[in-house]
Structure formats: structure tokens, C-alpha cells
Amino acid sequence: MPKTAPQNLEDSDEELLTFKYSITSYGADYPVDSLVKRMKNGSIYVPQFQRGYVWDHREASRFIESLLLGLPVPGIFLAKEQDTQKLLVIDGQQRLKTIQYFYDGVFEPNQREFSLTKVADEFDGLTYQTLSEEDRRRLDDSIIPATIVKQDEPSDDNSSIYYIFERLNTGGQQLKPQEIRACIYHGEFNNLLAELNYHQCWRDIYGSPKPDKRMRDQEMILRFLALYFEGDNYQKPMKGFLNQFLGQNRYLKKYDKSAIQLVFIRTIETAYEVWGGRAFKPKNQINAAVFDCIMVGLARRLEKGLINDKESLNTNYQHLLKSQNFLDVTVNSSRTTEKYIVQSRLSQAINAFENVQ
Fold first, then answer.
1. What region does 133 belong to: left with phi over 0, alpha with psi -120 to 50, or beta?
2. 3-class SS at 7?
3. Nearest to residue 46, comparing CAs of 23, 78, 73, 24?
4. CB 125 within 8 A of CB 56
5. Model pTM?
6. What is the radius of gyration, based on Cα positions, of the chain?
7. Angle of helix 159-168 versus helix 177-184 axis, rounded to 10
8. What's the rounded Cα separation, in Å, for the pair 149 and 166?
9. Beta-carbon neighbour count of residue 285 at 10 Å?
10. What is the pLDDT of residues 26-75, one digit of tens each?
11. What is the mean pLDDT of the chain?
């Protein structure tokens, strides 16, 4: 990973939502055995993300004990996916995974038998199978309240779920924007981003042989692709723009895999051939604003065919990095996601490369 994170990534901007959603929400009370069944068949699923399961054996045991004692427990938060009708767990994965582990009989973090520990004497040392029939029935019938949300409008991107997820994600290590997107928009496009992220030229430019654990490298690829394909429709916040682009093309129906692969690979290979590992680094680290516009400008030129005059390309690039107008909308700006600033740097980069032979 680079010594420092890329500059000007959208997660560093304090961005306010400039639009409203229409969201339906309702409450549902699920018996524990029903939740376990639904998790096993995938109709309720916990997304894979950085934080993962964090409870220890004692914490997990005390949660099961609360259910056995009939004590109220915190509710869970689920989002209904429009296309599959499955329920995505936004908040409550610790509770849901705990009951799943207990019913399976194995505490997954240490792969040991899940017997209750440091709980009331009547339950201490017991597994689901060794509970009395009465206690098993009481656990099966215990209720966990849920709030289920569904985005009605806009109907094509499920982007509100991103913001709900983000605002509920307040414990432990905060998830980065791309980590949340990987949870909510899992699918063919997200898989393709992970695949492109391993391209050797990109890894050399980014400065690490291994992908960034916080997915900031994937976010930069997404940012380039979004501005290349939909830059004319850009509206701040950048966060929302990327959410919408990934959500609308989640299954590679709007822009197909071959088109995305072609534009990214052709552009990043040309950049690496000309600038090597120093590409997009006006100082000592990648600048996201420099990266997105230079990549778009280079990609637009490559639409006309291969570039033969690499020296001219490099000269124009170096002039651009010294231009005060360009620096004002990239390196020197603290508002790199403002619409007029995004448009300005994109147009400057496109104009710089369009006549290179």
C-alpha cells in the first residue's frame, strides 16, 4: 500500500445530500428459528466486509442467554433488494451470526464447539443440541424485532441503502465508501472492479503489489469509469454519483464487461508505458483528481486509435501539471468534487491530449 492514502478521495469530503428519497419501512418480528432458516437458504444474508464478526465467545454466549431468559434484545436493520427480494443485513450481523453459529454448533471464529460459557448455571456448558427440549423451544420462539427498508424512488440504484448503512456504521473501525459499496452492490460489476484492480500496470502505479484493504484503489478505478462513461451527467456529491453509477450497472447491463475492460486496460497500460510508476503523482502520492481527469483525457484520445508520439503525450502531460489553471482544480483545491471543478479539469485534460498523434 502507498505510504499515505491517495489524496482527494471522495470519502475525505464533507458532502451533503442534495436530494430526497422515497423509502418504505416497516417492522417485522422474526422468531429465532425462522431467522436461522432464512440465513441458511440465503433469503437473509450478511454482506462480506472489512469489520466482520467481532464478538468473542463470552459476548456471544451472553446474547444467547438473553434470548433463553426472555430478555428483550436490540432489533436488526434489513434492506429489501428490489431485483431479488432478498434481505440485506445493514445492522445486526453480530446477533444474526451468533444465533447461526449456535444452531450449527460451531463458534466459527475459533472453530470450536459452541457451548455457552460464563452464563447462568442452568445453561453453562450447554450447546443447542444439549439444551432441554423446553429451552430449545423457548429459543426457537424468541423474537428478534426487525426494521425492513425498501427504496421506492429513485427505483434504479438502491443508493439510499448506502447512506443508511453508512450512518448506522458507527461502531469499531468506520467502513470506507468502497467497502460499503462492495456490500450493497455486490454483483458482476463489483467483481470486475476487483479483477481490474489486480492489473499489473495499475498495481505498479498505485504502489503496492496487493490490493488496498480499505478498497481505495478499487474506488479510484470506479471513479475513472464513472466519469468516463457518465461524466456529462455528473452531479455532486461524488459519493452519490459513484453509488448511482455502480448501482445502475450492477449486473453489467448498461455497460458490458468487454467495454469496461477495454477502456481501463488500454488507458492504464498507455499511462504506465509513458509515465511508469510516477503516473498521476504531482508530488509523492497519487492525487485522485489528477488521476480521474488524466485517465479520462487519455481514454478519450485512445478512442481515435493508438498513440505513436509518446514524447508529445508526455510533454503535454508535464505542461498540464505545471499549469496554474490545472493545479487550481486538482492539487490546490479542497473542493475537487464541485461540479464546475470536475468539468474544468476533465475538459483541460481532454483538450491537452486530443491532438497528440
1. alpha
2. strand
3. 78
4. no
5. 0.73
6. 24
7. 120
8. 15
9. 15
10. 999 999 999 999 999 999 988 765 356 889 999 999 999 999 999 999 99
11. 89
